[in-house]
Design goal:
The structure holds two protein chains of two kinds. Chain A is mainly beta. Helix content of chain A is 7%, strand content 26%. In chain A, the strands form two sheets. A five-stranded mixed beta sheet of chain A has the order 2-1-7-5-6, with helices on one face. In chain B, 29% of the residues lie in helices and 25% in strands. In chain B, helix 1 runs parallel beside helix 5, helix 1 packs parallel to helix 8 and helix 2 crosses helix 8. In chain B, the strands form four sheets. Chain B has an eight-stranded mixed beta sheet with strand order 5-6-4-14-15-16-13-17. In chain B, strands 8-2-1-12-19-18 form a six-stranded mixed beta sheet. A three-stranded antiparallel beta sheet of chain B has the order 9-10-11, with no helix packed on it. Classes of the chains: A mainly beta, B alpha/beta.
């Protein structure tokens, strides 16, 4: 689901890029955020809550709420609703609090 | 509001509430706590939430050890519904010079007298305890495995609720304006909501304790100074102990919920009541922290704030009755470590007020500053 005609904005969708969500190939357009590209691909669950591990999805869409935190190219706690998707990006669902043990 | 009380405690932070709870526990009826904002709104809720027993003076060591003993039993003692989040993963103190290491060794000797299980560690051992530590410049350290963290908000709430159950009246948003005296004896506390007759007042006003002193014409040897802190977003458990250095000037811990909490003491900070957050702190702090603990550069800062240290010339608190003003008690000048020694402070000061035998001998009177009888606490950030 993507907006095709918008009264103010133009969407340049002449070039498609590919990124990975939990190992699965996903198509996106440059300029889209990771979360919006996932949303367009029908993916609703982005992370889980830290205590009860309940599903968390696209929520505030402006980088405030922490609901869309995902692991992007090994970096945890990435606000996928405000970070633009890039060719070949490896995006993974985040389980609860971000894990930095790989960074030590 | 009551118009008379046996004891009026001015300051509803953790210390004031611990004093009030212990007074009630000892059977003192009619205890009132005055708090001009909400409970813990001063230094208590702004503090670094650490509990350290590794001190350099006998008094600080004793108070800290006995307070930790109380923290360990606190959930049961205060019948806490929500756990106080005590975490005992230690404090790792780092030395950056041989001279600093010498001081640590002296401190360790004092600590061992009071059964504080601290020990010297080599840089390699420090790295085993905190694997993401950058060892550059570190010559050694000290580690006490039973030091740690508790949640200041929950501890404050626990003391307040326990005190209330025992009949203590707590008046928030009620400010003490003046203390009335007659023939050098305290007769009443004047508040913005009315007068409370009493002959015993306890000053636990933290960063504003000198202002309460002025109400009984006492010039207290304490000054207030802003100290800043920041907190990061939550991450999975990464760092067990609090990492601290006096010379590198930092403390940094990960609280049980997951965020990192850190601060340092600005040597150029003037005496003031300023509690605004600064850009300067944010820049300095993040540089310091990521240099010493590199993985922290992957975590975002979510908030920063400041609170007041109430500092004495020897960095030890004043826990005593003022000789010049009978009935005027104080637990002030904690110099940045009030939260961690609040439990035992509450016990001792309540015993003093209730005229009971003291469960610990204490030499933290006001007169020591005039006598010049100071033992300087060397280990303060």
């Amino acid at each position: 689901m993507r907006i095709k005609n918008h009264p103010i904005l133009d969407f340049a969708r002449d070039r498609e890029i590919t990124f990975y969500y939990n190992g699965q190939e996903i198509a996106a357009y440059p300029g889209e955020t990771i979360a919006s590209a996932l949303h367009a691909a029908g993916i609703r669950k982005l992370s889980t809550s830290s205590k009860h591990h309940r599903p968390r999805g696209f929520f505030c869409a402006i980088g405030n709420c922490s609901s869309c935190f995902m692991v992007v190219d090994g970096e945890p706690n990435v606000k996928t609703c405000v970070v633009e998707v890039e060719e070949g990006m490896v995006v993974e669902e985040q389980e609860g609090r971000g894990d930095l043990s790989e960074k030590m | 509001m009551k118009n008379s009380a046996k004891v009026v405690v001015i300051g509803g932070g953790v210390v004031g509430l611990a004093v009030a709870y212990n007074l009630a526990r000892l059977g003192v009826k009619d205890v009132v706590v005055l708090e001009r904002a909400y409970l813990g709104s001063g230094a208590t809720s702004r503090c670094g939430a650490g509990i350290r027993q590794q001190w350099g003076t006998e008094m600080n060591c004793k108070l800290a050890k006995k307070s930790m003993d109380i923290f360990e039993e606190m959930n049961e003692m205060l019948e806490v519904k929500r756990d106080i989040e005590l975490k005992q993963k230690g404090y790792l103190l780092l030395a950056f010079s041989d001279k600093e290491m010498e001081q640590f060794r002296k401190n360790l000797e004092v600590q061992s007298k009071f059964d504080i299980p601290s020990r010297e560690v080599t840089p390699e051992e420090a790295k085993e305890i905190v694997p993401h530590l950058n060892l550059e410049g570190i010559v050694g350290g000290a580690f006490c495995p039973t030091d740690g963290h508790a949640n200041p908000f929950l501890v404050t709430e626990a003391y307040a609720k326990a005190a209330k159950r025992l009949g203590v009246e707590i008046y928030t948003y009620t400010e003490a304006l003046d203390i009335e005296k007659k023939n050098d004896k305290i007769t009443a506390v004047l508040t913005d909501k009315g007068k409370i007759k009493t002959d015993k007042v306890v000053n636990t006003a933290g960063g504003y304790s000198q202002q309460i002193g002025e109400m009984v014409d006492l010039e207290l040897p304490v000054k207030s100074e802003r100290h800043e802190i920041l907190v990061t977003e939550k991450v999975a458990p990464l760092q067990g102990p609090m990492v601290m250095s006096f010379s590198y000037n930092i403390y940094c811990q990960q609280t049980p919920e997951g965020p990192f909490l850190m601060g340092y003491g600005d040597p150029n900070e003037p005496e003031s009541y300023n509690i605004n957050a600064s850009w300067h702190f944010l820049e300095e702090m993040t540089k310091k922290a990521t240099r010493l603990l590199p993985p922290l550069k992957h975590i975002r800062v979510v908030r920063q704030w400041a609170g007041l240290y109430n500092i004495t010339p020897d960095r030890q608190p004043i826990i005593a009755e003022a000789e010049e003003v009978p009935g005027f008690y104080m637990a002030i000048g904690f110099s940045g470590h009030g939260f961690m020694i609040a439990p035992m402070t509450g016990v001792i000061l309540a015993e003093m007020i209730a005229d009971e035998e003291l469960s610990m001998d204490l030499k933290l009177d006001l007169g020591r500053f005039e006598r010049g009888d100071l033992i300087l606490e060397p280990s303060v950030v």
